[in-house]
Design a protein that fits this description.
Elements lengths: L1 H9 L3 H22 L2 H29 L1 H10 L3 H20 L9 H14 L5 E8 L2 E8 L6 H13 L4 H26 L2 H12 L2 H6 L6 H21 L2 H15 L8 H12 L7 H23 L17 H10 L9 H13 L4 H16 L22 H22 L6 H21 L2 H5 L6 H13 L8 E4 L2 H6 L3 E4 L2 H4 L1 H10 L4 E5 L1 H4 L3 H13 E11 L2 E10 L3
Parallel strand pairs: 3-4, 3-5
Antiparallel strand pairs: 1-2, 1-4, 5-7, 6-7
Helix pairs in contact: 2-14, 3-12, 3-14, 5-8, 5-9, 6-7, 8-9, 8-11, 8-18, 9-18, 11-12, 11-13, 12-14, 13-17, 16-18, 17-18, 18-19
């Protein structure tokens, strides 16, 4: 089979066929954009994206199996005490994120939306969040699905958990826990393949799991941990291919690149980084027909993402004015730059180690530059974003995609310090013991510096207290109503994840005939959820909640208060005219 593939690559007119293939895929993009409205495109994407992700994921599994030779080599390589230490590091990271870090939503109500999109992908085969959904004897019916402006990669991962174990938002948390622990291994093996040093690799993995916000956000249902993990996996694939030049690594790379791009809008920045890596390490690779052949596979799976960007262009993303502008640069630069230096939320020791690794490592010059250029775009893109400041609400989560390159450089810096101190102390006998002592000292120093951040890691904090209480009270409220009932709420995704029928509040104003039908179908058990949005200063939300009060009689079922916020569940009946 390999010989046949080589013959195909050497065929004289093969490049012409390849160029034609690329032009055909780009033509599909142009045709869709030119022939369909944005609403029509998003309707197409509802079905297309889940199918593309499913095929992409299946082929990724095949690629991993093809790379089994590499995995078996690793098992043999680390079937000793070093392998045991690596397992301990993995379990340590998993214990930190599951037992020390509180499990809670931190960005409302986006995490409910991600999970509900996963629910819809798992149970209906469409991507998007549901504004009106019902359950009939365990069968889910999403009646109104709206395409989400965010990519669908993270919800797809959630959907896999829901398919296997059933719908429960706890599985989204568990997946992020695992991504943090396996991310430690990704960091280890990137560093290992670059440096060949076990200590540098181990220190890099340890640094990655000791970053406080890495732990904090990896026990949520947010999309950023998956974006960081799969970007790292794509980098590992690039490193493996450039180191060994094997077609199996290139096949894996061609599949992991488009999959990683589906996690977050900025995830696509990994593509120019991969191109830069090839240019820096092995520019002759661009003459290899295999690269362009497997690149064609990557483009097949990138086409839906390209169409997605066009389909959701023009969304406000919560901004009244410009979304990206130079006017945000100064404030975001000061905030996001000091974040790595002031030792308040990010360990300065890791920053210092990373600086030492970048500047003073004797080898790996091109790889050190590439690690810097991995960090800079993923950090710098948010400097121009209106909500890109790490102190803007919960947007410190955007920092997660910058942590892997810093951790790898920190591991290199730890190696520089270990070698320098060990060489200075190597005079006389017992050189091996002194080197082991220095190694232990650096690891202990990293662990000890992390102790100061444990209160931060354990803290839930006041951020989003109003929405958090809304989430908690709503779950209590629905215990007091029959199973066959439906709730009007501005957060139907939250209720649908709990198996509760729900519909957007605006249906009570815009679709009164539908509400009449629901009252008949559910024998009067139609309820209005007075929620977080009704308490905000936003006039649109206040007017919507007021309109429900004006149009319907509301019978109190359950109420609660938190500070000056009111929450409640009310049974609805039409007012007599």
């Amino acid at each position: 089979m390999k010989n046949r593939a080589d013959k195909s690559f050497r065929f004289r007119f093969y490049p012409l066929f390849l160029v034609a293939g690329y032009l055909c895929l780009l033509g599909i993009d142009v045709y869709l954009i030119d022939s369909f409205s944005k609403d029509q495109i998003t309707t197409i994407l509802k079905k297309w994206v889940p199918l593309s992700l499913k095929i992409n994921c299946f082929l990724l599994i095949i690629a991993v199996l093809i790379c089994f030779k590499d995995l078996s080599h690793l098992f043999k390589k680390f079937s000793n005490r070093y392998g045991l230490f690596l397992i301990i590091l993995f379990l340590f990271a998993l214990a930190l994120v599951t037992f020390i870090t509180p499990s809670t939503h931190r960005i409302y109500y986006d995490e409910d939306i991600y999970a509900n999109v996963g629910q819809n992908m798992a149970l209906s085969g469409e991507t998007g969040f549901c504004n009106y959904g019902t359950f009939e004897y365990g069968e889910y019916f999403p009646h109104w699905i709206s395409y989400n402006k965010e990519p669908s990669g993270w919800p797809f991962l959630i959907s896999l958990g829901f398919k296997v174990f059933g719908t429960n938002e706890a599985y989204a948390f568990a997946i992020n826990n695992l991504l943090l622990a396996f991310g430690v291994l990704v960091v280890f093996f990137i560093t290992w393949n670059i440096t060949g040093s076990y200590f540098r690799s181990y220190a890099a993995g340890l640094a990655f799991c000791l970053i406080p916000h890495n732990l904090i956000w990896s026990n949520t249902a947010a999309a950023e941990p998956s974006a960081a993990f799969f970007a790292g996996l794509a980098v590992l694939a690039v490193v493996l291919y450039l180191k060994h030049g094997e077609s199996r690594h290139l096949f894996f790379l061609s599949l992991i690149i488009p999959f990683s791009c589906q996690m977050r809008p900025e995830s696509s920045l990994i593509i120019p980084w991969a191109v830069l890596a090839v240019l820096c390490i092995s520019p002759k690779t661009f003459l290899d027909r295999r690269l362009w052949s497997f690149g064609f596979i990557a483009l097949i799976f990138l086409v839906p993402q390209l169409v997605h960007f066009y389909g959701v262009s023009g969304h406000s993303w919560g901004a009244q004015g410009s979304k990206f502008s130079l006017e945000f640069l100064e404030n975001n630069l000061n905030t996001n730059g000091l974040y790595y230096l002031n030792n308040q939320f990010f360990p300065f020791l890791i920053t210092a180690f990373a600086a030492i690794g970048l500047l003073f490592s004797r080898k790996f010059f091109r790889w050190r530059l590439l690690l810097l250029f991995w960090f800079l775009p993923f950090w710098g893109i948010f400097l121009f974003f209106y909500a890109g400041s790490y102190k803007y609400g919960a947007d410190v989560r955007f920092a997660l995609v910058s942590f892997m390159p810093i951790a790898i450089l920190a591991g290199m810096g730890g190696g520089v310090l270990r070698d320098t101190i060990a060489n200075l102390a190597a005079r006389g006998t017992n050189q091996g013991q002194k080197r082991t002592a220095v190694t232990t000292l650096i690891i202990l120093l990293m662990l000890f510096s992390f102790v100061d951040f444990l209160p931060l890691v354990r803290r839930i904090g006041q951020e989003a207290w109003g929405a958090r209480k809304d989430h908690a009270y709503a779950k209590e409220f629905i215990q007091q109503i029959p199973d066959r009932s439906i709730v009007l709420t501005q957060n139907p995704t939250m209720f649908l994840l709990w198996g509760q029928n729900a519909i957007q509040t605006y249906a009570g104003v815009n679709n009164p005939d539908l509400i009449k039908d629901l009252m008949k179908r559910y024998q009067g058990h139609v309820y209005f959820h007075y929620n977080y949005w009704c308490n905000t200063m936003n006039k649109r939300n206040q007017n919507l909640c007021r309109s429900i009060r004006d149009r319907y009689n509301l019978e109190e079922i359950a109420t609660a208060r938190e500070q000056d916020y009111e929450y409640g569940l009310y049974r609805m009946t039409f007012k007599e005219k």
